[in-house]
Amino acid sequence: MPAKALRHAAGANRLVRKLALAGAGAAVLALPIAGAASASAAPAATPAADSATATTTAALTAANGYSNNLDGWIRQSLDIMAEKGIPGSYNGIYRNIMRESSGNQFAINNWDINAINGTPSKGLLQVIKPTFDAYHVEGTSWDMYDPVANITAACNYAADRYGSMDNVYSAY
């Protein structure tokens, strides 16, 4: 990549970080302006193993009466969280998903320190594998790209670390 492009990408990343500090809504609105230079800019293509996950999630979600979309995944996660005593609200989860992945269940961050160390953040709430494994909630998939498993594990982690996903307003 030419030096000029690298400077532009670095400037865009700084802009996104500054806007994220100003508020999650501003950061989400800035993504298209900044060239989507964040984890949410994951390629639209999904790994082969993920189609099986998407099919499994769709079947389970539909069987349980939840729609197979972001709204349904959040609602299903909230029901599981309520059963397990994990705090969180629809708005807190939605806000963090939009900041972390813009709702792309297959988002992957291949540029930050976690990725450099070989453990990229993945999924709707950009969880790394060790955190996902440690905070996995029984009854959900062990696949990090499974939206309900990703949301529920991330909320379990946020509850342990911050009291609730509702208290998270930046990278966590």
What do the pLDDT scores average to?
Answer: 77
What's the tally of helices? 8
Oligomeric status: single chain
**Strand percent estimate:** under 5%
How would you characterize the largest beta sheet? 2 strands, antiparallel
Q: What is the H-and-E element order? A: HHHHHEHEHH
Low-confidence stretches: 1-51
What does this structure look like?
With 172 residues, the chain is an all-alpha fold. The protein has eight helices and two strands, in the order αααααβαβαα. A two-stranded antiparallel ribbon has the order 1-2. α4 crosses α8 and α7 packs across α8. The longest helix is centred in the N-terminal third of the chain and has 20 residues. The two termini are 30 Å apart.
Briefly summarize what is shown:
This protein has 172 residues and is an all-alpha fold. The chain has helices spanning 3-22, 24-33, 48-63, 70-84, 90-100, 113-116, 129-135, 147-162; strands at 108-109, 121-122.
How do the helices and strands line up, and which of them pair or pack?
Elements: H1 3-22, H2 24-33, H3 48-63, H4 70-84, H5 90-100, E1 108-109, H6 113-116, E2 121-122, H7 129-135, H8 147-162
Antiparallel strand pairs: 1-2
Helix pairs in contact: 1-2, 2-5, 4-8, 7-8
